[in-house]
Amino acid sequence: MRNFDLAPLYRATVGFDQVADMMDRVLSSDVAQPTYPPYNIEKTADDAYRISIAVAGFCDADLGVEVREGHLIVTARKTEDESERSFLHRGIATRAFERKFQLADHVRVSGATHADGMLHIDLVREVPEALKPRQIEIASGATVAKDVVDAKAVN
Q: Tens digit of pLDDT for each residue in 45-104?
């Protein structure tokens, strides 16, 4: 796989550190992406999303969902001691995990539910009014504002 040197990007830009860091993370081939636990990301509405994570074998007390520094962090730690149990076959993995998701700007977690071995985390994108597009009314040329002073009268 190709390796890209992003050092010139860091030297030539100001204020784009977040974009450069994201590209660096995506292009790094050193770190293998974890595949446990399996998850889905679905778009449920124009500005709503749902992350569904398969967490079979974990109860509500074993799971943790936290938002920190623009990341959604889902953790699971098994609390009960299984040392006295003897398995003939163990196919359900209940090992501890930590899964991180990078959240886009203005995306917040609206809730989480745990049912039937699935953890569902609902996300909503809320764009502030100041960033939403707005229509500017165009006034006709015949009307002149009262506060405008004629430039010839001033000079």
A: 988 999 999 998 888 999 999 999 889 999 999 876 666 778 888 888 788 899 999 888
Rounded Cα gap, residues 39 and 120, in angstroms: 10
Write down the residue that tokens 């509500």 correspond to: 60
**Distance (Å, rounded) from C-alpha 44 to C-alpha 46?**
7
User: Could you give all domains of the chain from N- to C-terminal order, each with its CATH number?
Assistant: 1-32 (no CATH), 34-128 (2.60.40.790)
Rg of the chain over all Cα atoms, to the nearest angstrom? 26
DSSP state string for 6-26: -HHHHHH-SS-HHHHHHHHHH
Query: In sequence order, which residues have a C-beta less than 8 Å from that of residue 44 and are 6 or more positions away?
Result: 50, 122
pLDDT digits (tens, 9 = 90+) for 28-56: 655 566 788 999 999 999 889 999 999 98
Taking the C-alpha atoms of residue 33 and residue 29, their distance in angstroms, rounded to an integer, is: 9
